[in-house]
Amino acid sequence: xxxxxxxxxxxxxxxxxxxxxxxxxxxxxxxxxxxxxxxxxxxxxxxxxxxxxxxxxxxxxxxxxxxxxxxxxxxxxxxxxxxxxxxxxxxxxxxxxxxxxxxxxxxxxxxxxxxxxxxxxxxxxxxxxxxxxxxxxxxxxxxxxxxxxxxxxxxxxxxxxxxxxxxxxxxxxxxxxxxxxxxxxxxxxxxxxxxxxxxxxxxxxxxxxxxxxxxxxxxxxxxxxxxxxxxxxxxxxxxxxxxxxxxxxxxxxxxxxxxxxxxxxxxxxxxxxxxxxxxxxxxxxxxxxxxxxxxxxxxxxxxxxxxxxxxxxxxxxxxxxxxxxxxxxxxxxxxxxxxxxxxxxxxxxxxxxxxxxxxxxxxxxxxxxxxxxxxxxxxxxxxxxxxxxxxxxxxxxxxxxxxxxxxxxxxxxxxxxxxxxxxxxxxxxxxxxxxxxxxxxxxxxxxxxxxxxxxxxxxxxxxxxxxxxxxxxxxxxxxxxxxxxxxxxxxxxxxxxxxxxxxxxxxxxxxxxxxxxxxxxxxxxxxxxxxxxxxxxxxxxxxxxxxxxxxxxxxxxxxxxxxxxxxxxxxxxxxxxxxxxxxxxxxxxxxxxxxxxxxxxxxxxxxxxxxxxxxxxxxxxxxxxxxxxxxxxxxxxxxxxxxxxxxxxxxxxxxxxxxxxxxxxxxxxxxxxxxxxxxxx
Length: 681
Hints:
Blueprint: H1 14-24, E1 38-42, E2 49-54, E3 60-64, E4 70-72, E5 75-79, E6 84-94, E7 97-107, H2 118-124, E8 133-137, E9 145-149, E10 161-162, E11 177-180, E12 186-190, E13 194-197, E14 216-219, E15 226-231, E16 239-242, E17 256-263, E18 266-272, E19 279-287, H3 309-313, E20 317-322, E21 329-332, H4 352-355, E22 358-362, E23 366-370, E24 374-377, E25 387-390, E26 405-412, E27 421-425, E28 436-437, E29 440-441, E30 452-461, E31 466-472, E32 480-487, H5 501-505, E33 509-514, E34 521-524, H6 544-547, E35 550-554, E36 558-562, E37 566-569, E38 579-582, E39 597-604, E40 613-617, E41 628-629, E42 632-633, E43 644-653, E44 658-664, E45 672-679
Antiparallel strand pairs: 1-2, 2-5, 3-4, 3-6, 6-7, 8-11, 8-19, 9-10, 9-19, 11-12, 12-15, 13-14, 15-16, 16-17, 17-18, 18-19, 20-22, 20-32, 21-32, 22-23, 23-26, 24-25, 26-27, 27-30, 28-29, 30-31, 31-32, 33-35, 33-45, 34-45, 35-36, 36-39, 37-38, 39-40, 40-43, 41-42, 43-44, 44-45
């Protein structure tokens, strides 16, 4: 098995090093040669790879590994593919001065395979590239330079800012060249007299000036004698380091770069800002003289996406969720891509609180987001930690508007040159990802008031119900968030033949009761949701007096409620206590009409986009929950005389006979009771 070696090389600017040495020489005794001693051992991977460790810790430790490589730090790793004797020295610096310890290292056997490493070859051109391989910044490409958060939140890419083609012309960034040779780990740095640096680093570069394109430029000539190293550590991005005072592209205080992507003609690097640890910078390089394929510009928007308003809202209302699979949630440089994050990985198991969210679209233009009681929180929302957590953590934060709620939506059909579009509007309105909007991302809450966000429908498969949405957060076609939604189970797509009066009455008389299980009785911000209560819990054991009730429909229009001798009493009925109790407790109370009794019902079949409906009529007539009616709930009895309550058939399974009824108690689609009934026999 191939073992992984570790190498540490933290490099400081030479100018800074000289300044520190000058400061520390003013007092105290210099270190002794013995204090500059070190030890070394072969690594598990090879006897020709040695791990060096300084005996003592100093503020600055500079190694010459005798193989052409210089490095810094208390621990470093040296490669010695060829047999021979190598003189290794360590120079340490203290307040009083410096001291150097030197030792000859004997490598007994040649092992040239150590240099034949994929990353080494891609970087340098390999052993046969005598002149090495020279890289330059890919200035003609969007995003060749940019910045994002540290640590990365949604993948390693310049999430916050991507430079436009040639945006930094005149800074020195585009004229610098970087040559890597395999022999002696040689690094050639050609500055052509000018380098580009972060404004916080200007004090380290005499003559730094404003180039007119942001940050600073400075006159600088490479001193030569430079080296490079690559560290490959299991589970982490490889790290490319270059020796002081050199750097790649843009100086932000460090000389170590995470290799996010390295191919023959492209290298994409990430490095942390040493003056602001919350920032990570990115540069993209290509081989000098390489002409990338000409970007033909964006493809014409697909005229073949057949997706309509009826597909979105179904038979009146349709609820969607993220597909639990790879590719369903991601960000990349093109519509449908997740190359930036999570790059082909399925994260549904890591973020279950994201993949259970519901997005319901109603034919009346209302749109409801239901978090199902939990969210994937991020710091921009104002929460104290990142990751899955209760939705209640948003209360009182700047991100409170991103909690479950109702908004508005509009649908724009596709044309021969444009995708269909879904626009959600409202304070905190979003689909899937709260922070993403057209042309940007929120860095912190709250969201803007009454904001609209438009998503392109870039794909739809009518056979599977998969809906592909894309959102450009760069404003210039550089970065896209992409989501794949699927309809939720039983979300109102009534089976072929719909639900009929015969199904309800069994061609005569049929008794129904609540299904004893989770999801059979609940209230939430969307049809089918119980996220307000009981939030996924099975309460049939706690309320047996509710789950034994019978609701009996006869073909002649008679409807009977049979409480089976007990009720789940609540104070609005006028009973003395809440909970399971004898039905006789209703006698003489304002809620007496809600006891067992006979009423009437009517049935309205499905028609067009309208779902089937069941209406019960009579003083105290109800299904499952006495207090709930269309547009409200009773706060106290008695019920109104000869009241009618209409329930919508949200779903029906002709095989299991499960009948799902929903009732809007707000009249604006904001709060719904959901009941799942099954035949009593």
